[in-house]
């Protein structure tokens, strides 16, 4: 009887999900209620979790609750420690959730709401969640080893070096693009700038409190910090309303870029307790809080999605980024559907906390489903805006022109009506001087969130919610910058140490300085070029980031496929193998087009030669001609970087296939890399 | 009263655990159970060494 009720409940979930999907896909009206998206998403995750992850857990991984996990066997009271699965879920989700699933869907909304929704759901359930769960499983069965370590064991030294170099480059592009997002949000916005600047002394105060006054009392320190952060949003408003103070924070993008670069360097060499760790505590708390709040607000408000299901830009002529639906939808959405970076966490801190092997399912598959839900909410926030407003905020002046009349006329001519008065009123209600051409995704997300929060919670304080959203994004983007520069520094020191041993000493100051400067110069360069680019920069950097991220996912899936193919899981090697083939196809096609397309909006080398021709024939305006040589060089560099990424991913895939072939043809017996079975003592 | 009190206490403990507020207590419990002869680090030393360990690897994503 109970079983019958359960079966009936799952049939109902399936019907509700299918009905919501049908509603979304077939709807052809002016607008569609956002609740349809929430229902479709939740039903998809439930079914994916209940059936696909259940099948993977039982048949593919054969998760065994009686097998002692590394957390139990190697328990040291610190990193290895059996922890309740809801707590591990919280830790893991806080670690994987970042700005990527907020920015990607915002940009991908230029194709309309439908493609983004479909891939966020299908990609997460069939690929992203599967990757996270399988990497977590493989690492848990191997004493919590890192992805680089697993790659060395399964693929050999070539695969391992490719994985490490790939990781470093991906981190550099990631930090550049995230820094660009913050800089673009702060440029000529004194309120945002003042608020974001204020987060630095707040983090330091909390750091001193946690280290000197009440060591390790994270919860009370976080509570104080969150109150201070909220006060900083109000203080930013005060700054904005006082012309004399306002001028100090009214900075252009170049000045802010230099500030962020220097900040990143200082943060990377300061002790972690002073700035990085306290900021991370605050950002984790705010991140979890905002995700929760946004879900509630969307359910209360049930806003209408105004974006059409599909726009004409699926043909590749999009103003926010170029490239057709295939493959650039997948490259742009990246993290919300499948993210290679998660493989680093799923083979880092998380496997050392798993108390029971069966928890791998909830932690690995479940957190990614939640992450995908965050991406769906970001997509909703972008699509509740008037499409005309959405394009006016996200399209660079270099594309639609810098004066309001031309810009709005161009966007209206695309079929997305908007007028200067509407934009001016919107900017005024958000407490900003202007919202035109604020590329990067953060401002349009903040407008969408302000609209949702301000309307749902009834007090309409749009300007405060807008700057709260900017602060929310900036706080964890800056954390990623600090943490990423630091980890990049360790990887660089490790590499330099093989050239000259003293440079490998992580606490030797000259080595710390040299490695930190190298890493900051790396992402700082791409950030600076993004800032001077009249086309907004994000149109170049985001696809580069997306390709890099998807390639890292391909590396992780290649490692898992190798492990499965060389063990008694061979018949299930398609579970990681199919997403791997898909990712390799998508990234190869995208990279191919980015390298070889002769459309200057799409191909890097085509763009470089197009700009060089324009510069030579003197048709560029003086300010464009001034930056043209740097932009030409950068387009060529990006082209070569794409070639490099392509080589890395194919090296790993071929290396993996060769190893599997050697094993299957019996030329080389596989060595079992799993830790031996030990029965659990946990009750 | 006691049921809802218990639930509240569990919620509070969960919040502390997710944010890492109880790390030192868990460490002490571990030390007492596994290495009763050794002197555990004090709260300040533990916090400092924990941070140093935690931020040497990728633990935040895009």
Description of the molecule:
- The complex is a heterodimer of chains A (683) and B (62).
- With 683 residues, chain A is mainly α.
- Chain A has a domain at 6-188 and 251-544: Up-down Bundle (Sodium/glucose cotransporter), CATH 1.20.1730.
- Chain A has 27 helices and 2 strands.
- Chain A has a two-stranded antiparallel sheet with strand order 1-2.
- The model of chain A has no long low-confidence stretch (mean pLDDT 93).
- With 62 residues, chain B is mainly alpha-helical.
- Chain B has one domain.
- Helices cover 68% and strands 0% of the residues of chain B.
- The chains are: A mainly alpha (683), B mainly alpha (62).
- The interface between A and B is large, with 58 and 34 residues.
Largest sheet of chain B: none
State the strand order across the main sheet of chain A.
1-2
Strand fraction band of chain A? under 5%
Which series of helices and strands of chain A comes N to C? HEHHHHHHHHHHHHEHHHHHHHHHHHHHH
Helix content of chain A: over 70%
User: How many beta-strand runs of chain A?
Assistant: 2
Distance between the termini of chain B: 43 Å
Strand content of chain B: under 5%
Structural class of chain B: mainly alpha
Count up the helices of chain B. 3
Biggest beta-sheet profile of chain A: 2 strands, antiparallel
Task: Identify the CATH architecture of one domain in chain A.
Answer: Up-down Bundle
CATH topology of one domain in chain A: Sodium/glucose cotransporter
Brief account:
The complex is a heterodimer of chains A (683) and B (62). Chain A is mostly helical. Chain A is 73% helix and 1% strand.
List the helices and strands and how they pair.
The complex is a heterodimer of chains A (683) and B (62).
Chain A lengths: L1 H25 L5 E2 L1 H26 L9 H4 L11 H12 L3 H9 L4 H28 L6 H9 L1 H30 L3 H24 L4 H23 L2 H7 L3 H17 L6 H26 L2 E2 L19 H9 L7 H6 L12 H25 L3 H8 L2 H4 L3 H10 L6 H10 L12 H15 L5 H38 L9 H24 L5 H28 L8 H23 L7 H14 L4 H43 L19
Antiparallel strand pairs in A: 1-2
Helix pairs in contact in A: 1-2, 2-6, 2-16, 4-16, 5-16, 6-14, 6-16, 6-24, 7-8, 7-24, 8-12, 8-22, 8-23, 8-24, 8-27, 9-10, 9-11, 9-13, 9-22, 10-13, 10-22, 12-22, 12-23, 13-21, 13-22, 14-24, 14-25, 16-21, 21-22, 22-23, 24-25, 24-27, 25-27, 26-27
Chain B lengths: L1 H18 L3 H12 L8 H12 L8
